[in-house]
Write a structure and sequence with these properties.
2 domains, about 20% strand, UDP-galactose 4-epimerase, domain 1, Rossmann fold, binds uridine-5'-diphosphate, alpha/beta, single chain
Length: about 325
Amino acid sequence: MILVVGGAGYIGSHLVEKLIKRNEVVVLDNLSTGHEDAVDPSAVFFKGDLGNESDLEAVFSKYPIKAVMHFAANSLVGESVVDPLKYYENNVASTLKLLRVMLKYNVKNFIFSSTAATYGIPEVEIIGEDSRTQPINPYGQSKLMVENILADFAVAYDLRYVVLRYFNAAGASESGKIGEMHDPETHLIPIILQHLLGQREQISVFGDDYDTPDGTCIRDYIHVKDLANAHIAALDSLLNEQNKTAIYNLGNGQGYSVKEVIDTCEKVTGKKANVVIAERRAGDPARLVASAEKIRQALGWKAERKLEEIISSAWKWHQSVK
Ligand code: UDP
């Protein structure tokens, strides 16, 4: 059985939809940001908190867990700058509790959701996994701290792990059942689409004076379904002992500026956006674009879906929930 912590969240629920076709799955989620109805009904759902060891004990003592996939985290850059305590408690301290209980039950396979925010302001245009990690916000710090903890645990306790550093996850499942739904929403693509559906007056572009061709920030957007496939490949690489420890970037290898994302949303939806230029948002690097060569070579995974497809899947989903 595979334990998916945070399996009711945006990315976790897409993974569960895929994983359930081949493994038994138990989902542990406190529903602080996730949605129970996003969890595939064939999975066992357990409402509980990672920070609460008795909830973890309840799951590990009941089910024969052979691997843990950990999606439960706070993940908003801006929020982490104003409330770092929340990020270190929920992302670092709670993960330690999970690892402690895993070791107690001799569960040694771990897939960890990390982030491009671990790199901080990159020194290179295309970021490889060996690029310098120097986060510029507490969110990125909290994820890098866990990565470092995992490296020590691998040496001391023979923990096997794959760290997946996501770039910008976006898109929705074609089943139309699950998509990106945060409250409040802060992510670019859902904000643009909500605006184009008439749910917001305008779109604010956070800074147009960055050192990029059009002055707006560049990101590498990756479809959640591609992310889910990468997790399955990573899980298999641990279970078949191809990997003992590994760190992989997950991205398309192509960057789009905020303005380009807005243009593509206009093209996909056939609607015109009302855009205003606003102040820069704290903690934002100008450019984050992945090299995903390492995982392609090691596990044969690559992102299949480009920006237009990401946006059209999200658009379909946003229209269905409006
Ligand atoms: N962004 C923006 N306006 C918004 C939301 C986001 O200009 O209303 C920008 C943000 O500053 C960043 C990019 O869009 O440069 C992607 O932000 P998002 O929050 O989607 O993801 P992040 O890169 O922070 O993980």
